[in-house]
Amino acid sequence: MHIIENGNVAAALGVKLCRANVIAAYPITPQTPLTERLSEYVEAGEMKAEYIPVESEHSALAVCIAASSAGTRVSTATSANGLLYMHEQVQWAAGARLPIVMCVVNRAVGAPWNIWNDQQDSISQRDTGWIQMYCADHQQIIDTVIKAYWLAEKVSIPIMVCYDGYILSHTYMPFDVPDQEQVDAFLPPFRPDYALNPEDPANLNTVTLPDVRMDVHGELAHGYMEIRYLLQEEMRTTLAVAAEAEKRFTEIFGRGGDPYIEPYRCDDAEYVAVGLGSLTYQLRVCVDALRKEGINVGVMGVRFYRPFPDEAIANALKGKKGVIVFEKALSYGYEGALASDLKSALYEHLAYTGALPVVQNFIVGIGGRDIRTEELTQNLKAATQHRVSKEPAWIGLKL
Amino acid sequence: MQVKTTILSLPTEEFVHPGTRACAGCGLAIAYRVGLKALGKDTMLIVPPSCLTVLQGLFPVASTKLPCLNVTFASTAAAATGILAALKTQGNEHTTVAAWAGDGGTSDIGLQALSGAAERGDNFIYFCYDNEGYMNTGAQRSGTTPIGAVTANTPFKGKIQQKKDVPAIMAAHHLSYVAACSAAYPLDLYDKILKCKDMPGTKYFHIHIPCPPGWGYDPRYGIKIGRLAVETGYYDLYEIINGEFRLTAASEKLVEKRKLVPVREYFRAQSRFRILTDAQIADIQNQIDAKWAGYYKKDE
Question: In CATH terms, is domain A2-186 a member of 3.40.50.970?
Answer without folding.
Answer: yes
